[in-house]
Design a protein that fits this description.
This protein is mainly beta and 216 residues long. The protein has one helix at 2-20; strands spanning 33-44, 50-51, 56-57, 63-72, 77-96, 102-121, 127-144, 148-166, 171-186, 198-199, 203-214. The chain has an eight-stranded antiparallel barrel. A hairpin with a 4-residue loop joins strand 2 and strand 3.
């Protein structure tokens, strides 16, 4: 999976630069705002959500998503807000409750970045390659129907590369590769057999999405 992410980043850069260098009969107008949503695959670097005597439970994203909105300053520079994260269902984990009783449980894990970013578009045209950098608040939770909801918080920073394909005046398809790195803490130790109260929210992903642009 790691090699797939790296290869995808290289393909994005090479494909975008080559196509954006071509001349097109008509370039899309620069509009004032854009909003996008995407979903895809990724990897997480958290290895110790909690431990048992027979296994170590780690983060393994099932779905990565991103939602963003930007104010377009000019052909190259944009500023905006983003919501990005992943979700995962963890099944049949043997945990030790505070009472000392062992029990198999299922959990829903979510890790989210909420922040601001700056984006630089390298060239405009039918294809628009870009890069961005972001700083975020990390929020997340571990939910279980019997044990309730445990929350975490922290900070992260990161960025990525992507490209847009403008197939209509106000619409574009978007392919984006990114990575976020940071630190977070659970409000309390997850279980008596948890490694500790820390959580590593760092992860990388590749998403495909749709973008809508508007304004004069």
């Amino acid at each position: 999976m790691k090699s797939f992410i790296v290869l995808s980043i290289l393909l994005i850069v090479l494909f975008s630069v080559g196509l954006s260098a071509q001349e097109f009969e008509e370039e899309p107008a620069v509009l004032q705002f854009d909003a996008g949503i995407g979903a895809g695959i990724g990897i997480a670097f958290e290895k110790d959500i909690f431990k048992t005597e027979v296994e170590k439970v780690k983060a393994s994203p099932e779905v990565i998503f991103n939602i963003s909105m930007h104010y377009i300053v000019n052909d190259h520079l944009s500023f905006g807000f983003l919501l990005e994260g992943y979700t995962q269902t963890i099944n049949d984990v043997l945990v030790i409750l505070q009472s000392g009783q062992p029990k198999y449980e299922n959990f829903d894990l979510a890790c989210n970045n909420i922040g601001a970013d700056a984006r630089w578009t390298f060239s405009t045209g039918m294809f628009e390659p870009y890069g961005f950098a972001a700083i975020n608040l990390v929020t997340g939770s571990m939910q279980n129907s019997d044990l309730g909801n445990l929350t975490m918080s922290g900070l992260s920073f990161g960025g990525g590369l992507g490209t847009k394909f403008n197939f209509a005046e106000n619409w574009a398809a978007q392919l984006e590769a990114f990575g976020f790195f940071g630190t977070a803490k659970w409000k309390q130790k997850v279980f008596t057999n948890s490694a500790n109260a820390s959580f590593n929210p760092s992860h990388a992903g590749l998403t495909l999405g749709i973008v809508f642009r508007w304004g004069d």
